[in-house]
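Class prep. Write one:
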Amino acid sequence: MVDTNTKDKELTRLLPQIGAHLVTGEDPVLVMKGASMRPMTDVLVVTNARVVAFSSLKWADGAKFEARAGQIESAEADGRKVAIRTREGEAISFSVGKAEASRAVDAISRLASGAPDARVDAGLDAARAASDANEAAWDAVPIAGSATRNRVNRATWRVLRAAAYEDEVPLFLITGDDGTGVLAAFTDRCMIIKAGLMTSALAGSFGGSRQATFHYSQITGIEYNAGLLLGVLEILTASYNGTANKDRWRGISASRNKDANQAEALSNTLPLAKDGYKNAQGHINELRRLVSASKQVQVMVESPTPSDGGGNLASELGKLAELKQQGLLDDAEFAEAKRAVLAKFS
């Protein structure tokens, strides 16, 4: 039974979000909705192993405050507030109702005075180690282009983390001119992200973001158009076919969402000055290699068995002819595969 100050419907909505941040054997015993300014949170949770506080607007960010049973130095009810302090000097003052504050302090005091669960503590240690390793991997993502690492805004990092699969980090980032967006490359796809206050305003989506994902197998080309100083990197696909040049120095009279030539607003373009292009040349070459590798067709030729006889040669050649007819093999690939088949049966 979870002690709470919320209605059953809201608790039902909160518990899955909370559970995603708990480890095996860890169960919530108290869930309170309230408010804390430092850190900014609105959900206080007491489990059988620790006290944690979350922001319900940013569940993906994880716990904003955490104190295990052995780390809790004090928990006091100060009017409508729950004041918690750790032995390491961290503190949180969480506002709830007066009665709720007393109940929360009782739950925290029971936690602090009880014996820790070794199994849950081991799970928390493992989760922390995995989290630290993941953070280190994200910190090590290579970045090149026009803007420096510290100019990749928090909104972009949030979009990237949400888009990444479990335990996945980008291979590299290419940063556009300041405030214009980022290209992130993964093993099977790349993304152009235009997020953040200034960037979204330039993209014609003020307060929101533009996000486009391009699987390498769908990319038909990577184009760069440059003037004297400025330039634009463009990802071409069947949908974005590059029938018109997206020159950053043109199209300045129309509104951003109406101008089909506005590189800051288009989902498949990244404004990238010539210096930034030079800085990111290695990443761009790798991006082209990934696109090329995704389009390579592997032809598997089975060795004939003694009972197959010569009839299998015709079958294999027929299969190759079908692949060529379907456009999966070009003339050079067909000729090479045909030689391999003939060699197997010679």
User: Anything to note?
Assistant: The chain has a mean pLDDT of 87.
